[in-house]
Amino acid sequence: MSTDYKSTLFLPATNFPMKAGLPNKEPGLLERWETMNLFGLQRAQSKGREKFILHDGPPYANGHLHMGHAMNKVLKDVISRSQQMMGKDAHYVPGWDCHGLPIEWKIEEKYRNEGKNKDEVPVVEFRKECREFADHWVDIQREEFKRLGVIGEWDRPYLTMSYDAEAQIVRELLKFSMNGGLYRGSKPVMWSPVEKTALAEAEVEYHDHTSTTIYVRFPVVKGPDAFSGATILIWTTTPWTMPGNRAISYGHDIDYVGVEVTAVEEGSLAVVGEKFLVAEALLEDVQKEAGISACTPFWTGKGSEFAEVVCQHPFHGKGYEFDVPLLDGDHVTTDAGTGFVHTAPGHGQEDYEVGKKFGIEIPQTVDEDGTFYKHVPLFAGEHVYKCNDHVADELEAVGALMKRGKIKHSYPHSWRSKAPLIFRNTSQWFISMETNNLREIALKAIDDTKWYPKSGHRRLYSMVENRPDWVLSRQRAWGVPITIFVNKETGEILRDEAVNNRIVEITEKEGSDAWFDSSADRFLGADYDPNDYEMIMDILDVWFDSGSTHAFTLENRPELKWPADLYLEGTDQHRGWFHSSLLESCGTRGRAPYDAVLTHGFVLDGKGRKMSKSLGNIIAPEKIIKQSGADILRLWVVASDYTDDLRISNEIIQGQVDSYRRLRNTLRYILGNLAEWDESERVDVAEMPELEQWVLHRVSQLDEQIRHNCKEYEFSRMFSAILNFCTLELSAFYFDIRKDVLYCDGQNDLRRRAARTVLDQLFHCLTSWLAPILVFTAEETWLARFPGEESSVHLNQFPTIPANWRNDDLHTRWSKVRAFRRVVTGALEIERREKRIGASLQAAPVVYVNEDYNDLLTGLPLDDICITSGLTLEVGEAPDGAFTLEDVPFVAVVPQLAEGDKCQRCWKVLDEVGTHETHKDLCHRCADVVEGMELPAEAS
C-alpha cells in the first residue's frame, strides 16, 4: 500500500501552450491591436515624453515585399518599440516613394501590350494611371508590413505623391531657385538611351561589360621640331566617342618617350619607320599590344613639354576639320593605356572639366535615343551601342588605327532597363555644389552626424567631397515637375515670391498635375507676359522627392520633430536617400535632417549569394510567415549582425525556430510556476536566499546591458544576452535548482515565496525586453497572466530595476559556485552514463576542495545547488581517480551513492525517510508540508 503524493505538489499550471502556432495566432493579435487602437493608446500614454523619431526611408510602391524590405522594416520597428519601452514617445510614420521611372515603365508596358503609343496619351491621363498604380501597391505593401508586426501610423502614412507632399517638394525646389543654387547647364550626364532620360548616380548599377578597345594615332601638326612627323597615341574603351573628341590630355609630371618603330610582328597595324609618343612606363605594354617587336627612342621628356602641341583629328578631311590641342589634365595616370587621354568634353565628367578649364567646345553629337545627330559626319543616325566596329573600321581606313581589341570591365548600367549607359552632353537642371558653399556645409554635417557603423561617415564623406553638381531634371512624365519659368531672351530664372506662392498654392489644392493641365498665365499672374517665358516641363529627380520627405513629414506634423533622431536604410543609400536628404536639407536649412544614421547590409542566401530568380534562391517573407510566423522572421533580423550582409536559408530559419522554442519554454515555465500568485507572497530582496539575490543581480546587469544595446542599436548582442540568460542561467541553472523548492516546499515557505517573487520579476522583465522583438509572443505571454480589453505588454516600459539588486561581490562568489557545480554535475553525468545511478538525487558525492573554496561554500545548501541528496566537502588532496575539470582547479569529485530511502514526494534519498510518525515514506520537509492536506486514498 502506498500513497500518491502528486496532488500535494505545487506543479506548474498554465494555459500558455508549448506549441506556439504563430501563423494562426498572430493575425488574431493584429486584429486585437487594431480594435483596441494600440498605437493611439501608446500616443496618449506617451504625451509629454521626450520624442524619439525614426524617419522612415520610403520603399518604392511597385510590387510585393522582398526579404530586404522585411528586414529593414523589422529593424526599424524594433528600434522604435525599444525606444518607446525606454520611456520615449517613439511616434513612427511610415512612408512611400510613389513617383519615378519604374512605375512609368509599368504603365508604358501596359500600353505596349494594348497597342497604344504612350506619347499619344494626354500626359495628365498617363499620370493618373501612374498614381492609381502606386496607390494600389501602397495598399498591398501596407498590409504586408503590418503582418510583420510593425506598428505605426498606418492610416496616415506620408506619400511623395500626396498633394501636400508635392506642394512641399515644389517649395523646396523654389528655395534653391531663389538662393541661386539652381541653374541650367549643358554638361555630360549619365544618360540611358533606352529610357531617354538622365540618371542619378543612385540609379546606376555596375556590371561586367565587354567593350571594344582601340589605339588611335593623332598626327602632330604643331609643336617642337622633335615631334615633327610623329603621332600622339591614345587608347580608349569607347570608340563611339571619337566623333566627340576635341582634345588630348597629358600628365604634367609624367615621363614620356617618343619612339620610332623598327620592327613589327605579322599582322600588326604598326608601320616600320613611324614615330609615336607614349608614357615611358606604358611603352612596353603598348609594344606588346600593338605587335611592335622593336623600336628606337628619339625623344624623352616630361608631359609639361606638350603644352604647345596641337594635333589634327584622325578624321581630318572627312568633316572633322578642327585642331585637337594637348591639355594638362590632373586625371591622367599611367595605370593603363598610353599616358595620353582622348578627351571628348561631351562624354565624360573629367573630359568636361578639362574642356571647361581650357575653353574647349562641348559638341552635341548624340541624340536622346543614343543615335548620332544628322550633322555628325560619317556616323549620322547610327546607334552608339552598335557603331564601335564601324568607328574602328573608319580609323583603320585612314591609317589612324594601330590596334583594336576587347576588354571586360565594370561599366555603368541602368538599374531599371539593365542597359549600358553613356555620358551625354545635354541641357539639364542642376543644383550647384559650390554656390552657397553646399559642399562645405554638407561635409560639416556629415562630421556632426553619428554613424552606425562608423564606416558610414567615411563612405558618404568621400562621395560628397568628390561629387559633381546634382542633376535634377528628368525627361519623363511621372513625378513632380521643375516648376520654374525662364526668360526666353535672357535665359534667367524668374525669381518672384508671388509667382512661387501661386505655384505652391495651386499644387497644394490640385497636385502637381496642375502644372501640366494649366496655362502659364495661371501661375504668372498679371505681372508677366506668358509669351516671354519658357515653362519648364522636365520632371524632378525622384531622389529630390525622397530627399525632401523630412520637410513635409517631420516639419509639417506637430507630433514629430525635426531633425530626426535616426535615418535607417541599406548601405546603398549612402549614394541614395542619405545623400539626397543631406544635400536638400543642407541647401535649405544649413544642416542634415538627421542626428544619426544607421546602415545595414543586404540579404543574401545561405551561401552568401545575391537572391535572384535565375538561381532559384529567393525566399519570400510571406513564405516564412506562413510556415513559422512573423516572430521567427523578426528573431532572424535581431539575431543577425546587420552591419554586414545578412544570410537567410531554411536551415538558418530553423536555427531561429530552435532559439525561439527555448525562449518560449522559459516563458512557459515562469507562467506555470506563477499560478495563483498573490502580492502577499512578495519577499524583500534582503530576506531572500543568496541564489535569488544572485538572479536579481544578473537581472540588474542585463537591464543595464539591454538599455545600452538599445541606445546603440546593438540588437544581435541584446538578443544573444537574453537567449543565453534564459537558456544557460535560468533554465539550466536557476530553474533546475529551484524546481524542488517550487514543487515541494510549503506554500508559504520563505524559499518558495522568494523564488516566486523572482519569477514574477523575471516575467515583467523578460516580457518587456522581448516585446520589441517577439511582438506577438510577448503579448501572448502577457495576456496569459493579465487578460483585459486594453491590457498589452506594448503599453509597458522596461521595468525600473532597484539599486539594491546590484551585488557585485555576490556575483563573484556565485560565479565560483557555478563552476563548482559544473564539476559535480560533470562527475554525475559519467555515473549516469555508466548506469551506476539513474538520477542525480541518488548520489551524495564527496568533493575535495582547497581552503579558499571551503570558506566560499560554507553555509550554502550545496546538495540543493547540485541537485543531490547529500554532498560532503573535504579540504585537502583528492584520491586518485577523482573527477576534475581542467578549467576549475582545486575541485575534485568522488561520486558516492546516497544512503537511506527515497522520499516518495521529492525523491531525495535520505536517512530520515521512514522516521516520521505519520508519513513513513516521506522526508521530514515533505511530511510537514502535507500535514493537514487531504490525501488521496492509498493504492495497493
Q: Summarize this, please?
A:
By secondary structure, the protein is of the alpha/beta class. The strands form 9 sheets. Strands 6, 7, 8, 9, 10, 11, 12, 13, 14 and 15 form a 10-stranded mixed β-sheet that branches. A 4-stranded parallel β-sheet has the order 1-23-24-17, with helices on both faces. The longest helix is centred in the last third of the chain and has 30 residues, at 715-744.
SSE layout:
Elements: H1 22-36, H2 38-46, E1 54-55, H3 67-85, E2 95-96, H4 101-113, H5 123-147, E3 158-159, H6 163-179, E4 182-192, E5 197-198, E6 204-222, E7 230-236, E8 247-250, E9 255-264, E10 275-279, H7 283-290, E11 292-302, E12 310-312, E13 323-328, E14 341-343, H8 349-358, H9 388-397, E15 401-414, E16 422-431, H10 438-448, E17 450-452, H11 455-466, E18 470-471, E19 473-474, E20 485-487, H12 497-510, H13 513-517, H14 520-524, E21 533-535, E22 539-540, H15 542-547, H16 549-554, E23 566-570, H17 577-589, E24 596-600, E25 603-605, H18 621-627, H19 630-639, E26 646-648, H20 650-672, H21 690-711, H22 715-744, H23 750-770, H24 775-785, H25 808-833, E27 846-849, H26 851-857, H27 862-866, E28 872-875, E29 883-885, E30 888-894, E31 901-902, E32 909-910, H28 924-930
Parallel strand pairs: 1-23, 2-3, 7-10, 8-13, 17-24, 23-24, 25-26, 27-28
Antiparallel strand pairs: 4-5, 4-16, 6-7, 6-12, 6-15, 8-14, 9-10, 9-11, 12-13, 16-18, 19-22, 20-21, 27-30, 29-30, 31-32
